């Protein structure tokens, strides 16, 4: 996950938690998705986090934009291990490994989701604590199809679909800035999926996707609180000779609260809702919460 650290106030908030699980689970609570980049955006040498999230689907939005309320319960729980490590003043690498459990109407399955790796470079260092120039990171991300695709599901309600089913490579940029006890961030990314055969199920033909996230926060000593809003988009994923698919679009509002336990440990809790903003298309919209425990090593 991306780590935000500020010169003033609380210095251990997580951008990926501010963005909520939307950036990591694709269409809200459906299980398969793209991980937030594992990137240190502050002054730590390394970070290691355990993240647990729970989401409940509340609405279905179809390809024509029609909304429908859910009449049955469907949920997703994700336990994710992630970390990042710098190997020079400007370069770093990170990883994310999710285990996903999906349940509906008394049935459930669990297993590995899509793992990802990140390579980051600090394009705008803040060594001189410039009064207005932001700190900036550029990153590359690779997502591997280690989770079963929904299109290759073998279970009722497609509950064993815990991944996107194809390789994807992305490019992103993160900018952060602190003003006293206040902080701002912007994260933008774009990615491209690659064709992958599912055997007798056909060949997946994905397209482009991406996210744009904006947020801010305020520190009160060892506490920090702040909201964020993330817009997510994914081209239609077609099955060659069978289905043309439909594009996916949704927005996630999140509110996070973080506490610095001591210089080496921090905890963050966030709540999120995908039913409030944007003009969603072809999405399962949910509400939920995320809890993170993070270990940090100073440079």
What does this structure look like?
There is one protein chain. With 299 residues, this protein is mainly β. The chain has a single domain (2-298), classed as monomeric porin ompg (Porin, Beta Barrel). Helix content is 3%, strand content 59%. It has a twelve-stranded antiparallel barrel with strand order 4-6-7-9-10-11-12-15-16-18-19-20. A three-stranded mixed sheet has the order 2-1-3. The radius of gyration is 19 Å and the shape is globular. The two termini are 18 Å apart. Residues 2-31 have low confidence and may be disordered.
Using brief descriptors, characterize the structure shown.
299 residues; mainly beta; Porin; twelve-stranded antiparallel beta barrel; three-stranded mixed beta sheet; 20 strands; 3% helix; disordered N terminus
Question: Considering the protein shown, what is the CATH homologous superfamily?
Answer: monomeric porin ompg
**With helices defined by DSSP (H or I, 4 residues minimum), what is the helix count?**
2
CATH architecture label name:
Beta Barrel
CATH level-3 fold name: Porin
Count the beta strands.
20
Shape: globular
Unreliable residue stretches: 2-31
Strand adjacency order, main sheet = 4-6-7-9-10-11-12-15-16-18-19-20
CATH classification class = Mainly Beta
How far apart, in Å, are the first and last alpha carbons? 18 Å
Count of the domains: 1
Radius of gyration (Å):
19 Å
* Beta fraction: over 45%
**Average predicted confidence as pLDDT:** 85
């Amino acid at each position: 996950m991306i780590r935000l650290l500020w010169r003033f106030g609380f210095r251990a908030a997580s951008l990926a938690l501010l963005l909520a699980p939307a950036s990591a689970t694709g269409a809200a609570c459906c299980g398969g998705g793209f991980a937030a980049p594992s990137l240190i955006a502050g002054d730590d040498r390394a970070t290691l986090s355990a993240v647990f999230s729970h989401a409940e689907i509340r609405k279905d939005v179809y390809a024509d934009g029609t909304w429908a309320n859910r009449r049955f319960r469907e949920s997703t729980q994700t336990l994710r291990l992630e970390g990042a490590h710098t190997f020079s003043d400007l370069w770093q690498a990170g990883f994310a490994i999710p285990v996903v459990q999906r349940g509906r109407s008394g049935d459930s399955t669990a297993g590995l989701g899509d793992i990802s790796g990140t390579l980051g470079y600090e394009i705008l260092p803040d060594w001189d604590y410039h009064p207005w120039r932001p700190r900036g990171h550029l990153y590359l991300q690779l997502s591997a199809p280690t989770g079963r695709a929904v299109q290759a599901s073998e279970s009722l309600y497609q509950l064993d679909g815990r991944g996107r089913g194809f390789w994807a490579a992305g490019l992103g940029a993160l900018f952060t800035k602190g003003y006293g006890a206040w902080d701002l961030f912007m994260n933008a990314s774009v990615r491209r999926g690659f064709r992958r055969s599912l055997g007798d199920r056909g060949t997946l033909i994905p397209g482009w996707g991406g996210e744009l996230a904006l947020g801010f926060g305020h520190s009160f000593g060892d506490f920090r609180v702040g909201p964020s809003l993330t817009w997510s988009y994914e081209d239609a994923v077609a099955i060659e000779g069978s289905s043309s698919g439909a594009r996916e679009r949704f927005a996630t509002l999140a509110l996070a609260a973080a506490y610095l336990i001591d210089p080496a440990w921090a905890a963050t809790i966030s709540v999120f809702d995908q039913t409030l903003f944007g003009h969603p298309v072809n999405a399962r919209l949910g509400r939920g919460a995320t809890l993170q425990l993070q270990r940090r090593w100073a440079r």
